[in-house]
Amino acid sequence: MTEHPFDWLACPHCGGPLSRHDGALSCPNHHSFDIARQGYVNLLGHAAPHNADTPAMLDARARFLGSHLYDPIADDVVAAVGKARRIVEVGAGTGFYLGYLLDELPEAIGLATDVSPAAAKRAARAHPRAASIVADTWAGLPLRDGVADAILCVFAPRNSAEFARILAPGGRLVVVVPTAKHLAGLRERHGLLDVSDDKADTVAAAFPGWRSRRSPVDYQMALTGTLGADLVAMGPNAFHTPPSDIPDEFATVSVTVMTFIRPE
């Protein structure tokens, strides 16, 4: 049987391996989870939290990422991942970065995870060689030990202990974090969330003993008012009243692509 990303999963109740049959996943202890017709599996075990991405947020994200304005970030992620074959994107949203990566790696397969069922539904369609699950990074990822060659975490929550557990020895963790300059003008004018100056250092401190490197990605993008509104609406500020008066402008993109190698 051809390997499928669902073959990497573990039961969220007992930790046993999950196997596919008759449109469901089940473990040796007879816990069973339906595979939705859209191609994802909900392994969360409870209702999604109030701050999970909504369909409207995901629509805005798909429009913005479809504009190619963040493609330079995706290109750097591709370079950082290398030739990994089993790839997991956590907090994947629409699965944009996973799909972008799979386009560049024809032998790879990928799994997207997100706490939002709406996101998992969309990410399941991110690429023919991708699948998705609903899961909470903070609570623990329902994956078997050491199954991933690479983990992507792009503007998403991090769980260093879980990443170390599911990543194979020598595997790569690629984390993208904004710098204090990222979208600074937009954030100042529209009251968006602040970014700390030491964010990358904070991330690095969570992985002591891991070899690492940092790659800065800095450029100016021409942002139309419509895409600016989508940029605001696709993030946490969507839960507040989004600004409706964003002009056409140039905005600063400034992120750090961090690569960590799990110790052997």
Please state the average pLDDT score. 93
Give start-end ranges of low-pLDDT stretches.
none
Give the helix tally: 8
Helix share, percent: 25-40%
Distance between the termini: 29 Å
| Helix-strand makeup class | alpha/beta
- What is the alpha-carbon Rg in Å? 18 Å
- Neighbour order of strands in the largest sheet: 4-7-6-5-8-9-11-10
Strand residue content: 25-35%
- Spell out the helices and strands N to C: EEEEHHEHEHEEHEHHEHE
Any idea what the shape is?
A: globular
Largest sheet: 8 strands, mixed
β-strand number: 11
Account of the protein in words:
With 264 residues, the protein is of the alpha/beta class. The protein is built from eight helices and eleven strands. It has an eight-stranded mixed β-sheet, with helices on both faces. A three-stranded antiparallel β-sheet has the order 1-2-3, with no helix packed on it. Helix 1 crosses helix 8 and helix 2 crosses helix 3. The model has no long low-confidence stretch (mean pLDDT 93).
Features:
264 residues; alpha/beta; 3-stranded antiparallel beta sheet
Topology:
Layout: E1 19-21, E2 24-26, E3 32-34, E4 40-42, H1 55-65, H2 71-81, E5 86-90, H3 96-104, E6 109-114, H4 117-123, E7 130-134, E8 148-154, H5 160-166, E9 167-178, H6 184-190, H7 199-205, E10 211-223, H8 225-233, E11 249-261
Parallel strand pairs: 4-7, 5-6, 5-8, 6-7, 8-9
Antiparallel strand pairs: 1-2, 2-3, 9-11, 10-11
Helix pairs in contact: 1-8, 2-3
